[in-house]
Design a protein that fits this description.
Elements (H helix, E strand, L loop, with lengths): L1 H19 L5 H31 L2
């Protein structure tokens, strides 16, 4: 999960750089960052769910 979250942070960085270099406009950047935020929440939820399953099976 840590690799997935790190990769997500890398994508967010690249989106921000793309905006600064005028490869993306602000609307598209906002949309993409909103999606990465949602994906981050999904990764966190999965991570919590897996921790609960591991602790329940002990």
């Amino acid at each position: 999960m840590f690799i997935a979250f790190g990769s997500l942070m890398e994508v967010e960085t690249l989106i921000t750089i793309s905006l600064r270099q005028n490869y993306l406009n602000q609307d598209l950047t906002d949309n993409l960052l909103a999606r990465t935020d949602e994906i981050g929440k999904m990764i966190s939820g999965l991570q919590k769910s897996l921790k609960l399953k591991v602790s329940d099976s002990l």
